[in-house]
């Protein structure tokens, strides 16, 4: 069975002509310069499952299965695939595809890539969740491989749409070898030329690309986290397009005849994660500064109070200028498995105070929350707004904004230094199984579960539903299980959803782009406007 993600509900119309892929001969010699908002942590395509990393990798490396702009599955290196049984799949590779060094792409390369994923050391966000269910990979011939799973795994093609295929000789290559460029050889639409950390990635067109050569002879992806600097570069003509167009400047960009905006609903939810694991959490204290005898975040009443204290409509309208959607679940409406039973919780500060009293905190308590200041649209502003809202109901919240790489290194294993964090999660697969198994399943790296569960939340009853959903072949039954899992998680307030993002790109009016739910900024899909 081949799972196709459903059509997403778009909130802004995109001109039809802009959706047409144009590779006119006159454009074939041009260069393209794009400004990225998020800083990649690595170019090794198997090291860290992070959107900026994955987007850069998608320029250089192919996957067996691709996702379109709405995360529907399309053929990639595999021209076809089918299930032989509930636990056995066969993939047939395209013929005549070569890596950038001229060596053929064969089934042995796919097998080596799948073996490498769980073997990459020290990953802050491993890809193991996508290969966890694979029992064996059998190469039948150069173009055919058979994958056996430990149990029914209907999402195998979807999971494999996240795994980059590398030449087999780089199976044991280190992350440093990718960073140097020595191992950056793929079969994708662009060849790797250079990576300057914190500055840029330079790519050259792969004229032999099986999907058609890109319009651009060279693509430069500049890393520009500062919102004003990205816009300034666009207005000055230093860059041709930018991702994460800043909300504060959208009106000004929209009024310009020489600019265009491209928007779609994101697969990302912004949320608050709690330390629910430790009996005493390091950054919570009584209002007088004295230690608390127990971790208040382990009490569901406290977590619900935090959710009720957040005025989501105010954040969406005032901070995000309407360019977001108030969230009550893990995935926006229109994505597979998004629960229809989870509207945004009502803003109820009196109810929040009542729950805090019931939980034994009539005077509230002190808490520190950490969040990024360089990763998501208006992330620091959202963090500060949440702090103000919670302080009004008695939780004296101190907000600490910092670079995203520090959040990742200090907030997760092995440090677990924080008690509460503002984070974001984008669904690689375009369905609710991604945040459920990544964020809320009890951490079990061997099974690829809870790989981003930084608060170490654990609910065995929820785990059982998630695991059942991952092994359910029938789409209707799996959808019901995914909805049930989200409903149970939110009943326990396992985390506090705040908003679903809207992805926004700005380009010069000479360009067209197909906006993507996965946030990927892909040079191949920027085309000359006609």
Secondary-structure blueprint:
Elements: E1 30-36, H1 51-60, E2 65-67, E3 73-75, E4 78-85, E5 88-93, H2 107-116, E6 134-141, E7 144-149, H3 156-160, H4 175-180, E8 190-196, E9 200-205, E10 216-223, H5 227-236, E11 241-243, H6 250-255, E12 259-274, E13 284-285, H7 300-308, H8 312-319, E14 324-326, H9 349-358, E15 365-372, H10 379-392, E16 395-402, H11 404-411, E17 420-426, H12 433-440, H13 460-470, H14 475-491, E18 496-508, E19 511-513, E20 526-528
Parallel strand pairs: 1-10, 1-11, 15-16
Antiparallel strand pairs: 2-3, 4-5, 5-7, 6-7, 8-9, 9-10, 11-18, 12-17, 12-18, 13-15, 14-18, 19-20
Helix pairs in contact: 7-9, 12-13, 13-14
Strand proportion, as a percent range, falls in 15-25%
Strand count:
20
Structural class: alpha+beta
- Please give the oligomerization state of what you see: single chain
- Please give the alpha-carbon distance between the first and last residues: 39 Å
CATH superfamily of the largest domain: Periplasmic binding protein-like II
Uncertain parts:
1-29
Helix segment count?
A: 14
User: Helicity level, as a percent range?
Assistant: 10-25%
- Kindly identify the CATH topology of the largest domain: D-Maltodextrin-Binding Protein, domain 2
Mean pLDDT: 93
The best one-word shape is: globular
Q: Do you know the CATH architecture of the largest domain?
A: 3-Layer(aba) Sandwich
CATH class of the largest domain: Alpha Beta
Cα Rg: 23 Å
The major sheet is characterized as:
9 strands, mixed
Number of domains: 2
């Amino acid at each position: 069975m081949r799972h196709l993600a459903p059509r997403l509900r778009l909130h802004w119309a995109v001109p039809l002509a802009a959706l047409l892929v144009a590779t006119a001969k006159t454009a074939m010699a041009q260069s393209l310069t794009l400004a990225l908002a998020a800083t990649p942590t690595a170019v090794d395509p198997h090291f860290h499952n992070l959107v900026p990393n994955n987007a850069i990798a998608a320029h250089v490396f192919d996957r067996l299965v691709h996702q379109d702009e709405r995360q529907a599955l399309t053929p990639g290196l595999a021209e076809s695939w089918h299930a032989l049984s509930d636990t056995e799949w066969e993939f047939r590779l395209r013929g005549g595809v070569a890596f950038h060094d001229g060596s053929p792409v064969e089934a042995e390369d796919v097998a080596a890539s799948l073996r490498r994923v769980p073997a990459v050391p020290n990953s802050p966000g491993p890809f193991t969740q996508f290969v966890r269910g694979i029992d064996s990979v059998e190469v039948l011939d150069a173009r055919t491989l058979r994958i056996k799973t430990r149990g029914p795994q209907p999402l195998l093609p979807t999971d494999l749409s996240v795994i980059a295929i590398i030449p087999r000789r780089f199976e044991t290559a280190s992350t440093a070898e990718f960073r140097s460029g020595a191992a950056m050889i793929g079969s994708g639409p662009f060849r790797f030329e250079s990576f300057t950390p914190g500055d840029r990635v330079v790519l050259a067109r792969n004229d032999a690309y099986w999907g058609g050569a890109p319009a651009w002879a060279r693509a430069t992806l500049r890393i520009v986290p500062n919102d004003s600097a990205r816009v300034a570069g666009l207005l000055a003509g230093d860059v041709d397009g930018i991702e994460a167009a800043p909300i504060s400047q959208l009106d000004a960009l929209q009024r310009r005849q020489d600019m265009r905006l491209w928007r779609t609903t994101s697969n990302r939810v912004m949320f608050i994660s709690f330390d629910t694991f430790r009996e005493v959490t390091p950054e919570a204290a009584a209002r007088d500064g004295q230690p608390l005898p127990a971790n208040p975040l382990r009490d569901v009443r406290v977590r619900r109070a935090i959710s009720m204290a957040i005025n989501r409509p105010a954040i969406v309208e005032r901070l995000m200028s309407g360019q977001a959607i108030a969230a009550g679940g893990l995935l926006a409406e229109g994505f597979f498995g998004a629960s229809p039973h989870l509207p945004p919780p009502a803003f109820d500060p009196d109810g929040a105070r009542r729950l805090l009293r019931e939980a034994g905190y009539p005077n509230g308590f002190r808490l520190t929350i950490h969040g990024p200041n360089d990763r998501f649209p208006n992330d620091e502003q959202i963090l500060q707004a949440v702090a103000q809202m919670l302080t009004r109901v008695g939780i004296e919240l101190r907000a600490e904004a910092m670079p995203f790489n520090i959040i990742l290194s200090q907030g997760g294993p092995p440090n677990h230094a924080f008690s509460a964090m503002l984070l974001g999660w984008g669904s690689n697969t375009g369905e609710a199984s991604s945040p459920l198994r990544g964020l809320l399943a009890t951490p079990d790296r061997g099974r690829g579960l809870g790989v981003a569960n930084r608060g170490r939340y654990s609910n065995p009853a929820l785990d059982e539903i998630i695991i059942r959903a991952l092994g359910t072949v029938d789409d209707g039954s799996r959808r019901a299980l995914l909805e049930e899992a989200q409903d149970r998680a939110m009943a326990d307030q396992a985390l506090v959803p705040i908003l679903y993002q809207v992805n926004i790109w700005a380009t010069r009016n000479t360009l067209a782009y197909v906006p993507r739910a996965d946030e990927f900024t892909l040079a191949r899909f920027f085309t000359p406007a006609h």
